[in-house]
Amino acid sequence: LDRFFLEDDHPWMHDFEVKIKGCGEEETAVENPENVEDTAAEVQGDSTAVEHVAETPVAPANHETIQEKKDEESGDRSIWTIFFLAFGSGLAALLTPCVFPMIPMTVSFFTKQSKSKSQGIRNAVFYGASIIVIYVILGSVVTLFVPPDVINEISTGVGMNIFFFILLVVFAISFLGAFEITLPSSWVNKADKASDRGGLVGIFFMALVLALVSFSCTGPIVGTLLVESATVGGIVPVIGMLGFSAALALPFGLFAAFPGWLNSLPKSGGWLTSVKVFLGFLELAFAFKFLSNADLVVQGHYLERELFLAIWIGIFAILAVYLFGLIRLPHDSPVQNLSVGRTLLGTATVIFVIYLIPGLWGAPLKLISGFPPPMSYSESPHGVGATGGATSGAQEHGPEGTHLGAQGLYLFHDLDEGLAYAKKEGKPAFLDFTGWACVNCRKMEENVWGEPGVIDIMRDDVVIISLYVDEKAELPLEEQVEVEFAPGKKRVLKTVGNKWSAYQTTHYQTNTQPYYRMLGPNGEDLTNGSADYEHHGNPEDFKAWLEEGLKLYDAAK
C-alpha cells in the first residue's frame, strides 16, 4: 500500500500498480521502478531536487485515465511499426544468396513428393509455420532473459552500446564478403538427419535446417533486429521475430499454392551477392548510431555531428560507387551491364549523399533526424555560417545556469534553478524529460521545436528545463538517497539520471521520453496535460498544446 492524499489531506488507502510503458518507434524507456511514498506537497522553487522525488501530487482521475488510454494507443502503434519494420527486414533476407535459391527447391520438393496438390499445399504451409515458430521461440528467449531492470543498461549503457557497435561492424564485414558467419556443422547435420523422418516432424526439422544453413545471411539481420528490440524490451523481440519470420515463410506457402508463379522468379546469380553487400553497407552505417549513443551518454564529444555525417557520407558514397560497378568486392562477378534496378538504386544513393553534405555546414537534415548527434553536439554548435536551423532560437547569451541546447535555445538542467528562474520571470516552466540516446527526443527538437510559431514560444514565453534520465554523472553523496520502490524493496539513487527517472515515474506514472509538462506560477501542473512524440510530433499539435498552457498560466496568475 502506498499513501495518497486527497485535497482535504485525508489519506486514501488503495492498492495500485504503476505501469511503465515500454517504448516503441525508437523512444527511450528507462526502466527504474521508483515507487516511493507520496506526500501532499507542491513543487516549490526553493525546494531541493531530492525532495521532489518523494513528492507526488495526485493527478485528477480523469487525467490519469486519459493518459493511460493514450499510452495504450501509443504502444499499439509502436508494436505495429516494429512488426512491419521486421517484416521488411524479412523480405530483404529473402533476397540473399542463402535463402532465395531455397524457394524453388523447397516448393518443388513439396509439390512432387506429395500425393495430391492439397497435401503439397498443406505441407508447404506447415513448413512456413515451422519457420515462424522457430524464430518466435528465439524472440521469446530474448524476452525471457532480458528482464525489464536491465533494459536501461542495454539502451543507454556505454559498454552495451559499444558492444552492439562492434557486433554490427562484424555483421557488416561478413556481408561485405570478408568471411562467413556460420553455425557449427554438427548442428546442421543433426537437424538434417531429423528431417529424414518424414511426416510433420520431418518438415519441422527441414525448416530448422533452413534456419541453420541460411544463418550466414539471416544471422546479421536477425542479430540487428534482436539488438534493437532488446533496447525496447517487453514483447517487442517476439513481435520483431514474428514479422521477420512471416516475411521469410510467406513465399513458401504462396508458391506451393500457385506453382506457376515459380516461372516468374528471377534466376539466381550475382545480383543476390549485390543485395548482400548492399545490406552490409546499411549495417555498417547503422552501427555508428550505437557508437554515437555511447559518446552522447558520457558527453565525450569524440563522435560529434560533423564526424558522424562525414562517416555516413563516406559509407554511402562507396556504396554508390559499388552499385555503379566501379569497384568489386570478394565473390562479386564482373558487371557487364547495369540493370535498371541497380541503376535506380545507385542514383538514389547518390542523391542521399548529396542530401547529407550540407549537414556538415549546419543543415538540419530532417529526413534522418534522431540518427546523427543533435545539432548542438557539434564542433560548431550554431553551424558554420548558418543563419537558421540550429540558430533559429539563438540568443547572444543565456541566463546564468543555462546550457545551449537544440535550436540555439538555452536550457536549465537543474530543476530547482529552472523553477526559481521561471518564477522570477513570470513564465511557465517547461519540463522536458529527455535522454541523450533518445531518438524521438531528437526528432522533436529538430523537426518541431524550430518551426515557425513554435520556436517563438520556446524562446520567449517559457523556461525550458531539460532533465536527462540517462545522465550518468554521479549524484553528490548527500543526494544518493534510498527510496522504496516496492514493499520491502529499496534502491539508492546514484546518478543524476536515476533521480530524474524516479521523479518522472513518481510524479507522472510514466517513464518514456520525450515527455513534456508545463507548470503554473506555483510549480503546479497545468491542466493541459502532457505532450509527447506520439501525439504531438508535428508543429501544429505541439503549438496548440503550448498555447493552451500559456492561457492556463495567465489565468492562474
> End-to-end span in angstroms?
36 Å
Task: Report Rg.
Answer: 27 Å
The helicity comes to 40-55%
Number of domains as seen in the coordinates = 2
Question: What is the overall pLDDT average?
Answer: 76
| CATH 2nd-level architecture of the largest domain | 3-Layer(aba) Sandwich
The H-level CATH homologous superfamily of the largest domain, spelled out, is: Glutaredoxin
Helix/sheet category = alpha+beta
Overall body shape:
elongated
Question: What is the fold named in CATH at topology level of the largest domain?
Answer: Glutaredoxin
Give the biggest beta sheet. 4 strands, mixed
Low-confidence stretches: 1-9, 17-50, 54-75, 383-394
Count helical runs.
Answer: 19
Note down, in words, how this protein is organized.
There is one protein chain. The chain is an alpha+beta fold. It has 2 domains: 12-58 and 386-556, Glutaredoxin (3-Layer(aba) Sandwich); 79-266, no CATH class. It is built from 19 helices and 12 strands. The strands form 5 sheets. Strands 7-6-11-12 form a 4-stranded mixed sheet, with helices on both faces. It has a two-stranded antiparallel ribbon with strand order 1-2. Strand 1 (2-5) and strand 2 (11-14) form a beta hairpin. Helix 12 (305-323) packs antiparallel against helix 13 (340-356). It is elongated and about 85 Å long.
